[in-house]
Input
Amino acid sequence: METTTTYVLLGTDGRLTDDPAARDVTPELCRDLYRDMVLARRVDSEAYHLQRQGELGLWLQSLGQEAAQVGSIRAIRDSDPVFPSYRDHAAALCRGIGPEALLAQWRGVRQSGWDPAEHRFGVYTLVLGAQLLHAVGYAMGVQRDGSDDVVLAYFGDGSSSEGEANEAFNWAATVHAPVVFFCQNNQWAISTPTGRQFGAPLHRRAAGFGLATELVDGNDVLGVHAATRRAVEAVRRGGGPALIEATTYRMAGHSTSDDPTRYRTAAELDHWRARDPVDRLRALLDDRGWADGAFLADLDAEADALGAETRRACRALPDPDPTAMFDHVLPGGSPTVDRQRDAYAAYLASFEDAVEEAR
Amino acid sequence: MTSETFRLPDVGEGLTEADVLTWHVAVGDTVTVNQTIVEVETAKAAVELPCPFGGTVRELLAAEGDTVAVGAPLITVATGAEPETELAPEPEPERSEPEQGSGSVLVGYGTSAAATRRRRRRPAAPEPARPAVGTNGPNGTGPRATPPVRKMAKDAGVDLAEVSHDGERISREDVRRHLEQATTPSDPGETRERIAGVRKATAAAVTTSAFTAPHVTEFLTVDVTATVERVALLRGHPAFAWVRVTPLLLVARALLSAIRHHPEVHARWDEANQEIVRLRTVNLGIAAATDRGLIVPNVPDAGSLTLPGLARALEELTTTARAGRTTPERMRGGTVTITNVGVFGVDAATPILNPGESAILCVGAIRRRPWEYRGEVALREVTTLSLSFDHRLVDGELGSRVLARVGAVLADPAGELLLD
Output
């Protein structure tokens, strides 16, 4: 079988390869990406603990996938629209979505925590692959507006088997939509390994649809950054849609309801732990002397403060008025929805009365 | 100094309770925010719970082994100048309602915690008889236990129906106690091991078979030199280039031939319906010794295979069995079986029928023996075949004809198989 070379800029040994893009690597870029990844990992870890303390109904950890997310979202303009899946916390944080907004949905107090228009970052989509069609549709709107925005759509290896994903690839190629599909291939679709998910790697299947594709080491934040920048700029110049497959690893379970020890081995985890994206960039920073003690101490303090803020903000999230769930069903509402809201309010009121009587 | 209570959260989308496995802290210990304090086992997984507060452990409100309802208090922590306050720059306390427990905790907290919390009685010594044995769950689906406990029981070869328990459901502790009782040596000069797994299944199968089907076993010693030579020839044939050819292949082919010539032998006794079921498709079982014990996987529709196809099927079957990867469905549906005791260097056996089958063919070791050959004594490859059959289905005459046919094919495979 034909094999494709994985693009690497920062090797597992923490050294830059001789790729031309290495010339664009600056100390500032490395420090910024490192900070993004460390802070994202901290929020993710706090959210996990909050779930285990009963403060969140569910959480899906991004642990291990920080480089794929941070490297890609930092390679596009802040104004480029992003359509995430549901594990893209590091990317969301880079778009200014804070812990409170990030956790609200998982605490079950809001349907989504942020305004997609304000952050140019869509709501989390738990229907696998659906966001890819939304992204292509949005990109067609971009074409019609005559804007030079490029749409970035995140998804995973499991989603790549979905009909939606394949329709999105095909349609994007057909209409030449300005979209970059970014697959975080984290090796596991819940308990299904990639080996049982598809017979040919995604970047090769996508090429068959007519997308410009690249395979990149998803735990190499600099490589992801360079590859995404290349792809996005090519699309922005009118080159047609692209797909990046980033090889990474989901270090935690699929969700807090999943027990990954039932289907994968400790040896596999060790293999990937040795390829940790944060450690890898830290090795470069240390090797080059690009991060002094003050920077690292400040970052530690910032992470601690963000952790505390995550806990505080989560617990402080107000319970919504139960009838608020009717507010966003249709823009402007409708008589039918209004009737349902009234009926539900009456039901709740009767329930409270019953409690009062019992006392 | 205030005190905080951490209640058991629903850590897995709709759980109602968990068993306390291990406490990682004791009363008086200092704990920090997010420090793992306890491991609990839910119906889904063993889960470590991190402490939401920092401070000093004041009380552990559940013992290891207890089943705790979601929402029931687990631990109280005296929170003085705890690390959380030092870390959090915001003066706004996240615990504005002290002593009320975690009022803001989310999922599944509708009911009174104290009312649903159960503390299980634990006897000091194993009891000779325990109240509930094999209590059926709802709808008669067997005893109730969480999936992790079912897994533990399955791994240990324990039938949950035999585990005594006094709670609503069988717990990990119940299974452990069951195992201890089952394996307590009564005499220092002996060791006891629990009857479990393949051993248990095999025992049940041979017992059922031996005491249900009246067995008759016949023997035939036959000169199989031609078979041994034919096997050597086949090994060099391109059709068998990637597959192991052994005398067992021709034994299988000989048995298939005998069934083709005497299809009445291939049947099943249906006691419940008082019917004899004639079988058209031969699913050929091969008894295999594995690390786990004796198993009998089968080659489905072996009669439809070409000789190379049969060789591949047999090789795949034995390789899979030795690797311990035989799936349960490959062990179901067998219609007739071959057992090869020759591999252990013995001459013959009186095999017991695989339950539900009408015949089983046993092959002994092939040895060079002085044998009458063309009017003289010569050293020939000789083996003893034995055939056990269910005498309800197979008369002595039919059984004899089948065994004779197998012998005839092995004595002259090239010639006799032309007759098929």
